[in-house]
Amino acid sequence: MEHAKKDCPVNFEEANYTVITSQCKGPLYPPTLCCEALKDFACPYTTYINDVQTSCAATMFSYINLYGKYPPGLFANTCKEGANGLACPEDTPQVKPGEEKASSSAAAGGVVPLLAIAAVSAFLMLITS
To answer: InterPro entries annotated for this entry (predicted)?
Structure first.
């Protein structure tokens, strides 16, 4: 039996997706540009996207795909840096709900896996190294 997920505390509806939509463009969707843009956007939110008890990952990818009009599974199938997914810089400041930026101490620490469910069983993993 599947448990209901908690609402995401981050307002991804109002987020600025320009970093992704300005760099990751079709018809070719260059993997280097698309994946770096995804990391630029998502790494500050790893704390929330990693929380599998919330809807943050699915919500974030829903809006990325809505605003970017990306093909289903583009990021999940394209953006991989090893078995654990994409590596976020260790010093990436974590954004807190209601704040634009947070101190880099919020991101201190080892590995933070980020499980993001984008579509029907499509996923992407972001980690801090």
So the answer is: LLG1-like, LORELEI-like
43-83 tens-digit pLDDT: 999 989 888 899 999 999 999 999 999 998 899 888 988 77
Contact 21, 67 (CB under 8 A): yes
For the cut 60, the answer to whether the pLDDT of residue 32 exceeds it is yes
Q: Cα 41–98–53 angle (5° rounding)? A: 70
State which amino acid sits at residue 67.
Y
What Cα–Cα distance (Å) separates residue 76 from each residue in 95, 109, 110? Answer: 23, 25, 23
What are the CA-CA distances from residue 69 to residues 74, 112, 117 (Å)? 10, 29, 17
> How is the chain split into domains, by residue range?
16-128
Q: How many angstroms separate the CA atoms of 72 and 111, rounded? A: 28
Q: Which two tokens stand for residue 20?
A: 């992704």
Q: Please say whether the beta carbons of 73 and 64 come within 8 A.
A: no
